[in-house]
Design a protein that fits this description.
With 126 residues, the chain is mostly helical. The protein is 78% helix and 0% strand. The mean pLDDT is 92.
Length: 126
């Protein structure tokens, strides 16, 4: 699902910030896919905590602290989590320019995170 959502985001995202800012339908579609993709990443992190029988996290930040010995890019996941929270909780006051810039960064970071997940799964498949 993450890779599918990211492919859609990449396909829909204009190259220029001004184009993004002027197209409310594209903004809405991308913002929704961003939320779904990031939530899926966070859900996978919770599954890794269960897989490795780690202590249950006491907060969202604890999830990533618990996995820092297993995943190489927890700081990228934390930044994505902050971005998701920004989108979910700001509501009508979202700065489209900031969303565009974060989307471009997300397009670069998510494949790295997904690769990290796959490596971890391969190491623990036996």
């Amino acid at each position: 699902m993450i890779e599918q959502k990211m492919a859609e985001i990449k396909d829909w995202c204009p190259k220029e910030k001004e184009q993004y800012i002027s197209d409310k339908k594209v903004q809405a579609a991308i913002e929704r896919n961003i939320q779904v993709a990031i939530q899926a990443i966070l859900d996978i992190c919770i599954q890794f905590i269960k897989l490795f029988k780690l202590d249950p996290p006491t907060s969202d930040e604890n999830i990533l602290d618990s996995l820092s010995n297993y995943l190489m890019h927890t700081e990228k996941i934390l930044e994505l989590k902050k971005f998701r929270n920004f989108l979910v909780h700001i509501y009508g006051n979202i700065n489209s320019g900031i969303v565009f810039e974060n989307t471009i960064q997300m397009i670069k970071d998510v494949p790295i995170i997904v690769a990290d997940f796959k490596i971890l799964l391969e190491k623990n498949a036996h």
